[in-house]
């Protein structure tokens, strides 16, 4: 099953303690000393110590069936099974690299892509859509403390929003990670959430329907514009941001959106003229050729022109699997309007 039905249908909105598989205590209370052993292929392999050898060496029986003699300083302790898929890794009894990787892996296998690490939120990119960002999820996290809900980017956004409104102090959310980690998508989810709660909290006249404000809509529609001119396909990421951006959203005392400012910097200008054969130039070039209407094509002197006719686009890939450049062009034009 996916994150959504397990979260909503089985546990409801109260964030009930999730039951995890495994034999509780098998790691610490059976008399065995469970450890993590470094492995060249799997990074870490679990096992238990069967013998203490000379010179601080340990003989370990690993779960993969192998026996290994390792230095006692090179192994890490394994947490009891009750900590498997822990929501917050700061609560782990033994906090080490192997336990962190193991916990993130188990949660990822269960479509739980968000995990707390103390004050921080860690996300593992699923590289596929998950049904965890709809209006029901906005309502689930709105105004609720972190302790009452499961880890989610909306929880971080809501905490910042509530601190801003209740305390009147500026808030910052830093989204960082390597290429392909999901920075762009999670930034968009933060903006989506803030636009939703700021709109829903806006006082409105009686008998009027709740509609997104024009400012909220403009902020959300800035994304396809920025991505068209500043994102490109790389060997690691089909929608890699090739620039940095600093987004500031201003709110009124009542929590309504008053304006937004987007500062961009460090655009990878060299990509325009030179790129890897397995990558693409900026999206806008491909979107323009795929989606522009005949009238505009004639005005831009593009009649009969294809990707291979331009030095900027013939060097790399023509298309991105699962992405329609024509549709993306239409989204871009709509965003400008």
From TrEMBL:
Provide one Gene Ontology cellular component: myosin complex
Q: Which UniProt keywords apply?
A: Actin-binding, ATP-binding, Coiled coil, Motor protein, Myosin, Nucleotide-binding
Output the InterPro entries linked to this UniProt entry. Kinesin_motor_dom_sf (IPR036961), Myosin_head_motor_dom-like (IPR001609), P-loop_NTPase (IPR027417), SH3_Myosin (IPR004009)
Residues forming the Myosin motor domain are: 84-337
Domain of life, source organism: Eukaryota
Molecular-function GO terms, alphabetical: actin filament binding; ATP binding; microfilament motor activity
Myosin N-terminal SH3-like domain location, by residue?
30-80
Any idea which positions bind ATP?
177-184
Write down the PROSITE patterns for this protein, in alphabetical order. MYOSIN_MOTOR, SH3_LIKE
A single BP term in Gene Ontology? actin filament organization
Instruction: Tell me one Pfam family matched here.
Output: Myosin_head
**Family in the record:** Belongs to the TRAFAC class myosin-kinesin ATPase superfamily. Myosin family.
Name under which the protein is recorded = Uncharacterized protein
**Biological source species:** Aureobasidium melanogenum
